[in-house]
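User: We ran a pulldown and think these components assemble together. Before we commit to crystallization trials, I'd like a predicted model of the whole complex to look at. Sequences follow.
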Amino acid sequence: GQNIDQPTEMTATEGAIVQINCTYQTSGFNGLFWYQQHAGEAPTFLSYNVLDGLEEKGRFSSFLSRSKGYSYLLLKELQMKDSASYLCAVRANMDSNYQLIWGAGTKLIIKP
Amino acid sequence: EAQVTQNPRYLITVTGKKLTVTCSQNMNHEYMSWYRQDPGLGLRQIYYSMNVEVTDKGDVPEGYKVSRKEKRNFPLILESPSPNQTSLYFCASSPRQGYPYEQYFGPGTRLTVT
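Assistant: Here's a predicted model for the assembly, 226 residues in total across the polymer chains.
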């Protein structure tokens, strides 16, 4: 079956670095997305990985290992506004259609 | 401004009273989708549409209907709402389904069915 696992909640300190992990088991893997969602708001796109390796975008980086079914989102120089949920989503090719399979999200709490 | 809009943003209704949640995008996107989000379950897809007059079921379509008569609009219809449809609903769109485009989400509709 299709499955995505993320930690439910993490806590980090302002100015520090945090790594949010995502593991997946899917068939027809065709890319992995990370989204940020503030409480009560819509998800917004952060990053996309389809090949192995690290993608860096400012304070945020995302890593993918397809052989291990593993990704992480790295947030540096944490700010209070980074308090949000982070959603991992895998795009899978199923029956000639591309579908997004979503993890339940990781709630990140930033403390001063 | 490029955006996805949803209406209403908040709705409290009673069991069995038909309702429609509208969704509109101004980006000429082909692909549109409806999700519901419940605590601890993440986003679950209800229905999606790859283009005008082309719709298909997602993971949790029971109790919902959709239509795609125009490219920009993708309304979600609950013919006879029940309390288990109380949830936060998001509409999303992307240029096409088969490419690595990210999805753009509407602001959400919080629905309570009593």
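Chain A has a mean pLDDT of 94. That may be worth checking against your pulldown data before setting up trials.

User: Thanks, that helps.
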